[in-house]
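Minimal example, chain plus pyrazine-2-carboxylic acid.
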Amino acid sequence: MKGITRRQSLRYLLQGAAGLALSSSTVNALAAMATKDEKSALIVVDVQNCFIDGGTLPVKNGAEVVPVINQLSTQFLNVVMTQDWHTKEHASFASTYDGKKPFETTELSYGTQVLWPDHCVQGTDDASLVAGLDIPHAEMIIRKGFHQHIDSYSAFYEADHKTPTGLVGYLRERGIKNVYIVGLATDFCVAWTAVDAAKAGFKTAVIEDACRAIDLNGSLQNAWKMMTEAGVKRLQSEDIIG
Ligand code: VGL
Ligand code: ZN
């Protein structure tokens, strides 16, 4: 299905089957129905104060995802949210190391770690979900990055690629088969979450315009390459909402 959107592919499929042209509103309605089922979940990654203007690690135009995600969330019966949730002097903070500055790297036991400004410290306002996020039916909030010596971009496995957060088990027990991922930042927590979701066997899509990126040294391009190779679908919110 390379090069065509899910909505287009649905249209081709349905036109072929029915032998007639469908109006785009019919197709949109079908695309929306595809997500409003018990087997699909929206995962809202790290839409927290720290990642928008005024926060400690602001992502460019990060707050723009909020209305898009609010609208998308109405199309899902199941919504899970994540929070980056670090200890003070966390292993991912530049300030934890002598002579290190934010956005440099260091070698940790599990590999290369990008060092960040202090951000999303447990219990602070900086770590709170953005106030404008309006998803009252979200059923689960999973916190990650709370081990002092291990970072966790992914909502599924920490940066050692071994320590589980419990989210695979939660989704499997709930019978979820399809996950749609949105939030901040495209090239770190969204991408790592998407790759792990696909590896765990969920049908996985990232909704691109409901994400914003940090884009550090080509990280955004690398992230899409990683996600594509893992079989993650790249959707736009109009594929879901119409
Ligand atoms: C994130 C850098 C550090 C993210 C979290 O949510 O993408 N990025 N911690
Ligand atoms: Zn973090």
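The two ends are 19 Å apart (CA to CA). The longest helix spans residues 186-199.
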